[in-house]
Amino acid sequence: MPGFIVVSLNLRGIHDSWLRREPLIVRGLAELRPDILCVQEAATWCFQARWLAWRLSRATGDRYRVVQARKRGWRGILEGVAVLSRHPIGGHRALGLGGEGRVAQRAVVRVGGVPVVVGNAHLEHHSRSSGLRERQAQSLVRWLENARVPALLTGDLNDVPESPALQTFAGAYRSAHEGVEIVGTAPAWDRHRIIDYILVGEGLDVAASGTCLDQPVDGRWPSDHIGLWARVRTPESPGSAPA
Questions:
Q1: Angle, nearest 10°, between helix axes 48-60 and 18-32?
Q2: Strands 151-156 and 79-85
Q3: Are the beta carbons of 124 and 100 closer than 8 angstroms?
Q4: What is the pLDDT of residues 73-98, one digit of tens each?
């Protein structure tokens, strides 16, 4: 299986002039042409993830499919997480994580006919919620460990690498950005903490990784988080970084 590109991005919903931010996001993503795009804070009431998939399909000539998981309770009217893929998506499930309706999703994406489990999550954000984030991380690990195929996990995990929550993932996953200097992922204009991740599990290698959507255009930022990308492959497959 050739290498495939994974991108993770917090969309910030439709806040901060979405109609002006959206072209910046589409343009940046089209340059990368991700195989799999995982987004957080995707507005559900206006089908933001589906709109982005349509725009990205038009910009690249590929067909992007979408599966989405809404937040639990009334917050699900407002936002959720979504996986966009230009490869077939098999099974899709959602997991409630508690807190303020937080949710994770798990999709099986067949890249070149080979199944890969893609997890996408948005953990609790309050600074006082460290213990809750750790429990959410534990739930995610248990939920994803049932997968019998290679798995990766992306998302806005709202905690720093040395936190108990992120250490929970350390046994089963490693950062796709090990050895890559990243000062922070949020806020985009004053990056001082890493809270967004692409984590890869056993059976997957990282050929290259970096950041994207990490500069303002004419004074406007694509989002309040920068994006992350990684070219991932199975150990036996060739692959290289995007040009």
A1: 50
A2: unpaired
A3: yes
A4: 999 999 999 999 999 999 999 999 99
